[in-house]
Design brief:
heterodimer, A: about 500 residues, Rossmann fold, 7-stranded mixed β-sheet, 17 helices, about 35% helix, B: about 350 residues, mainly alpha, two-stranded antiparallel sheet, 14 helices
C-alpha cells in the first residue's frame, strides 16, 4: 500500500458542553475522492475546519506528504496545498470573475495574465466560464465554478468540497463530476462532504462515516448500498417515508393567472401561474433556485399581496389578506431562509413559536401573549420534532441549521394547517431528520391537508409528491403526476415550462 | 492578539452589568479629566454624585431630580419603542415644543376660567395631540414616500423652534407683560398649573412618566405589539412573515413617542418653566436619546438612566458653581457616559479572547 497523502490521527476537539470530534483517524490517498459522511452535528464541519486551519485540535496530529501539518490559519493551510470550496460562496456580485479571483490571492498577477490563466484552467477542466463576466449575472452553478477555479489556481493537493451539489441542476452536477474525476486522475485528493448518498456512490472511492464526533466506519461507496451507508450514519435502521395514497379530495385552493412583480431588486417576477391544490395533495415544485420560489411562497404566505381573483381559498379571494389572516384560515408557510425570515435569530424558541403560532394556537388573549401556553407549544415542537436544544429559552441562533429547520417545520405542521407551503424543507437537515420531516408532511396530507413542497432536491420531490411542476423564470409548468416521470422529462420541465406544455398537449390525445 | 468572538447567545450578565461598568468607567475618565483641568477629581465627582442626594442642601436638589428626570424618562420611553423597531425619531425636541405650544394655547385660551377638572386635562390632551401630530409628519412621509424619518424629524425641530419664537413674541405674548416676550405664567394659573406639590417637585409630568414606565413594561413583556416591535427591529423579514405591517408600526411608534414628548413639554411649560418663552426648552428631547440607550431601551432601565442623567445635570450645576468647573467639561462627562456604554455593550454579544501564536 502506498503512503497516504494525508494522515489524520486521533483528532479531538471539544467545545464547552459538546465534543465535536473524538479521536478521529483516517487517511486520504492521493488521487482519490474521499467522502465524509455524517448527520448534522456529527462533526464534519469541525473536522474540515481543522484541516483548513480554522480550528486548532485539542489533541491529535495531521501529516501531509509525510511531514507534520499544523496550520495555524487558513493561509498556512493554503500554502501547504489545501483548498476549500465552501457551501456558501464569498463573492462580490459587483465585480467580474477575474477580479473576484484576484481578491482571494496572496500575490495576484496582472489582470490580463490572470484572465488568461482562468481561461486555461476553465478549459482544461471543462468548467466553462468567461473571466470578464460580472458575478452578479452568474447562476449558482457558475458562481461555484468561480470558487473552484479560485482553488485550482493554487494547484492544491487536497481539495475540500462542502456540499457542492446542493445548488446545482442535474446537468451542472454532471459537469462538476467530470471536473472532479479529471482532477482525481491528475493525483489531487478530494475530500467530499454531502448528504446525497447516491451522488457519493457514483463519485467517491472511499467514505469515512462520522457519528457524534467519532469515526464509526469506512466503506467503499460503490460496493455499499445507499441504505447501508445511511444506517451507518444514523446508527440504526432508516425509516423510509411511506404513505397511503388516498383519493384526491375537494379543491382547497385555486390559483388563476397569478402574476406578481418581485419585491426584491434582483428577484424574479411571477408570470401567469395557474394551479389547483386539493385536499390530500402533495405538489412538488422543482426548479433551480432563483426562478421565483421565494416569490411564490411569499404570494401564498401573504407577504406579497396580489390583485383580486388570482388566489382563492375555498371560494374566498385571499390575494389581499395579510399573513395572520391567512393563518387563521389555515394557510401556513415555512420559507427557505431560516435565520431572519422563518425565525428571528436573537429571540428565544418560545418567542419564535409565537411568531407564527399565535392565531391558530390561540396564544394571545386580547393582544396579551400567554407565555406559559407559548412555551408549552415550543416544548411540544421540540419534543415531537426531536429538536436538539437545552430548552425553549435558548436563542434560535444557538441552534444548528438542521435543528432550527426541524423547529420551523414542526411549528407549522403542529398548527394543523389546511394548506402548507414549504420551501426547501430538508435543506441542511441530516438523513434521518429529513425522513422524519417528509413523513410528517405526508401524514399531514393524509389527514386531508394540501401540501406544496418547493425544493431543489429532485430525489426528495420524487419521493413524496404525487403531482410535479417546475418553476422556470417565474412561470410554473403544468403539474403532472410524479409517478412515471423520467429524468429527461423533468430536465425539460426545469429548463422551460412552455415547451413541455406543448409536448404534453400533443402527447395527450 | 485580542479577538472578539460572537457569543451564541447574548450574555445575561453583561446586559445588566454593562451600564454599571459604564458608569464606573465614566467616573474614572471624569476623574482624569477634572484632574487635568486642575480641579480636585474626587471632590468634583462627589459634588456631582453625592452632594445632590445626601449633601447639606439636598432638600433643594432632590425635587430638582424629579423635575429634570420626569421629562427625560417620558420622552426616552417613547423613543425606545421606535428605537427597538429600527424607527429613529431624532426630533423629540420638536414634538416637545409643539406639545407645549398646543397645550399652552388651550390653557391661555381658557384663561381665566377656574375649572381645574377641565383646563388641565384639556391642556394635557392638546399637548399629547400636538406632539403626536408633529411626529406624524415624518411618519406619514416615511410611509407614503419612504423618506428618511431621521432627517425629517430632526429638521422639524428647527421649524418648531421658530414657531416657538413666533408664539412667545406674538400670539401668546402676555398682554399684561409690559412688552416682555413670553406668555402668561401658567404655573400661577391654578386651573392650568401642572404642579401637584411644588415643594417636593411633584407635578403631573412625573406621575405620567411613572405610569408610562408601567405601561411600557407591560407592553414589552406581555403584549403582542411589544413583541412585534422587537421582532421588526431584530428581523424585519421575519416580522413581515409573521404578519407585522411595517407602516402601522412606524405610525404607532412615532405617534406614541410624539405624544409622550408632547405631554412632557406641556407639563414642563405649565409647571417648572411656567411660561412659553423663546428658550424654555433645554434639550430634553436630545438628551432623552442618551437616556433611552443608557437604559438599554428597557422601561425600568430608562427610569434608572433618567434618574442618573438628571443627577449629572444637577450635580454638574453644583460642581460648576462650587468648583468653577467649565460647563463644557460637564457635557464631555455626560457624553462619555453614552460613549463608554456603547463600547462596553459589545461584551453583551461578543466575548474577548486572547489568541496567541497567530501572526497578523
Amino acid at each position: 500500500m502506498t503512503e497516504p497523502l494525508m494522515k489524520l490521527e486521533g483528532l479531538t476537539k471539544a467545545y464547552p458542553g459538546v465534543v465535536a470530534n473524538s479521536d478521529v483517524s483516517f487517511n486520504i490517498q492521493a488521487g482519490e475522492v474521499h467522502a465524509l459522511l455524517g448527520e448534522n452535528g456529527a462533526g464534519k464541519s469541525t473536522l474540515v475546519k481543522t484541516i483548513y486551519g480554522l480550528v486548532k485540535p485539542d489533541t491529535g496530529t495531521m501529516t501531509l506528504d509525510g511531514k507534520p501539518f499544523t496550520p495555524a490559519e487558513p493561509r498556512a493551510a493554503r500554502a501547504a496545498g489545501i483548498a476549500m470550496v465552501f457551501q456558501h460562496f464569498s463573492l462580490f456580485e459587483a465585480l467580474d470573475v477575474a477580479e473576484n479571483v484576484a481578491l482571494g490571492m496572496e500575490n495576484p498577477p496582472p489582470m490580463n495574465d490572470l484572465a488568461q490563466r482562468i481561461k486555461d484552467v476553465s478549459e482544461t477542466y471543462g468548467l466553462p466560464l468567461d473571466p470578464s463576466r460580472i458575478v452578479g449575472d452568474l447562476s449558482a452553478g457558475e458562481r461555484q465554478r468561480v470558487e473552484i477555479i479560485r482553488c485550482l489556481l493554487q494547484d492544491p493537493k487536497v481539495l475540500i468540497m462542502d456540499e457542492p451539489t446542493s445548488v446545482l441542476t442535474p446537468q451542472e452536477v454532471e459537469i462538476l463530476f467530470e471536473t472532479l474525476r479529471k482532477l482525481k486522475s491528475e493525483g489531487t485528493a478530494i475530500l467530499y462532504i454531502s448528504h446525497k448518498l447516491e451522488e457519493i456512490r457514483s463519485l467517491c472511492d472511499h467514505a469515512t462515516v462520522l457519528r457524534l464526533g467519532k469515526n464509526v466506519g469506512e466503506c467503499v461507496p460503490s460496493e455499499t448500498s445507499a441504505r447501508e451507508m445511511a444506517e451507518l450514519m444514523v446508527g440504526g435502521t432508516l425509516h423510509v417515508p411511506e404513505r397511503e395514497v388516498g383519493e384526491r379530495g375537494e379543491t382547497l385552493m385555486t390559483i388563476r393567472g397569478l402574476s406578481a412583480p418581485s419585491p426584491a431588486e434582483f428577484g424574479t417576477s411571477l408570470k401567469d401561474i395557474t394551479l389547483d391544490i386539493r385536499a390530500g395533495d402533495v405538489i412538488g415544485i422543482g426548479g433551480v433556485a432563483g426562478n421565483g420560489q421565494d416569490e411564490f411562497l411569499g404570494v401564498l404566505s401573504g407577504e406579497i399581496r396580489v390583485g383580486a381573483g388570482q388566489v382563492a381559498f375555498m371560494g374566498q379571494d385571499i390575494g389581499q389578506l395579510p399573513p395572520d389572516a391567512r393563518r387563521t384560515l389555515g394557510i401556513c408557510a415555512a420559507p427557505e431562509e431560516r435565520m431572519g425570515h422563518a425565525a428571528a435569530p436573537d429571540m428565544s424558541l418560545t418567542e419564535n413559536a409565537a411568531l407564527t403560532g399565535r392565531k391558530r394556537k390561540a396564544l394571545t388573549n386580547n393582544g396579551f401573549i400567554d407565555w406559559g401556553k407559548t412555551r408549552n407549544f415550543a416544548e411540544d415542537i421540540i419534543e415531537r420534532f426531536d429538536v436538539r436544544t437545552p430548552g425553549p429559552g435558548n436563542a434560535a441562533r444557538s441552534l444548528s441549521g438542521g435543528n432550527l429547520q426541524k423547529f420551523v417545520i414542526g411549528r407549522e405542521i403542529l398548527q394543523d394547517p389546511k394548506i402548507l407551503i414549504v420551501n426547501q424543507p430538508t435543506w441542511g437537515v441530516d438523513a434521518s431528520a429529513a425522513a422524519a420531516i417528509r413523513q410528517a408532511l405526508l401524514d399531514l396530507a393524509a389527514k386531508g391537508a394540501g401540501v406544496i413542497v418547493i425544493s431543489q432536491d429532485l430525489d426528495e420531490l420524487m419521493e413524496i409528491s404525487d403531482q410535479f411542476a417546475a418553476l422556470n423564470e417565474g412561470r410554473l409548468s403544468e403539474p403532472r403526476p410524479a409517478q412515471g416521470l423520467t429524468v429527461e422529462e423533468i430536465g425539460l420541465m426545469l429548463g422551460g415550462a412552455h415547451d413541455m406544455e406543448v409536448a404534453h398537449l400533443e402527447a395527450a390525445p | 492578539m485580542i479577538i472578539l468572538e460572537k457569543r451564541p447567545q447574548a450574555s445575561q450578565f453583561w446586559s445588566y452589568g454593562a451600564p454599571i461598568v459604564a458608569v464606573f468607567v465614566t467616573m474614572i475618565f471624569g476623574a482624569v479629566l477634572f484632574a487635568a483641568l486642575g480641579k480636585p477629581p474626587i471632590e468634583a465627582l462627589s459634588k456631582i454624585f453625592w452632594e445632590p442626594l445626601f449633601g447639606e442642601f439636598n432638600f433643594f436638589y432632590l425635587p430638582q431630580l424629579l423635575i429634570k428626570g420626569a421629562p427625560l424618562v417620558a420622552i426616552a420611553l417613547g423613543l425606545s419603542l421606535g428605537f427597538k423597531a429600527g424607527i429613529w425619531n431624532i426630533g423629540a425636541e420638536g414634538q416637545y415644543i409643539i406639545g407645549a405650544l398646543c397645550g399652552a394655547a388651550v390653557g391661555l385660551a381658557l384663561y381665566p376660567m377656574e375649572a381645574r377638572w377641565l383646563v388641565l386635562p384639556a391642556m394635557l390632551i392638546a399637548g399629547a395631540f400636538g406632539g403626536f401630530a408633529w411626529a406624524m409628519i415624518p411618519g406619514i412621509l416615511r410611509v407614503k414616500f419612504n423618506t428618511n424619518e431621521i432627517l425629517v424629524s430632526l429638521m422639524l425641530v428647527y421649524v418648531a423652534e421658530q414657531l416657538l419664537a413666533a408664539m412667545a413674541l406674538g400670539a401668546m405674548k402676555n398682554p399684561e407683560g409690559m412688552g416682555f416676550p413670553g406668555s402668561r405664567n401658567l404655573s400661577q394659573y391654578s386651573s392650568a398649573s401642572s404642579w401637584i406639590d411644588q415643594g417636593h417637585g411633584m407635578h403631573w409630568g412625573v406621575v405620567i412618566a411613572l405610569i408610562a414606565v408601567i405601561f411600557a413594561y407591560i407592553l414589552f413583556t406581555r403584549h403582542i405589539l411589544g413583541f412585534q416591535i422587537k421582532l421588526a427591529g431584530q428581523a424585519p423579514r421575519a416580522a413581515a412573515f409573521s404578519g407585522v405591517s411595517p407602516a402601522r408600526l412606524v405610525l404607532f411608534c412615532l405617534g406614541t413617542s410624539g405624544a409622550l414628548a408632547g405631554i412632557a413639554g406641556l407639563t414642563e411649560v405649565s409647571g417648572p418653566a411656567g411660561v412659553v418663552s423663546i428658550d424654555f426648552n433645554v434639550g430634553y428631547g436630545f438628551t432623552a436619546i442618551i437616556v433611552a440607550f443608557l437604559g438599554r431601551l428597557h422601561p425600568v432601565g430608562i427610569l434608572m438612566a433618567g434618574a442618573l442623567m438628571a443627577l449629572t445635570y444637577i450635580g454638574g450645576d453644583v460642581a460648576q458653581s462650587s468648583l468653577g468647573l467649565p460647563k463644557a467639561a460637564i457635557q464631555v462627562f455626560q457624553g462619555t457616559l453614552l460613549f463608554s456604554l456603547l463600547g462596553i455593550d459589545v461584551l453583551t454579544n461578543y466575548r474577548v479572547r486572547m489568541k496567541r501564536g497567530a501572526v497578523a
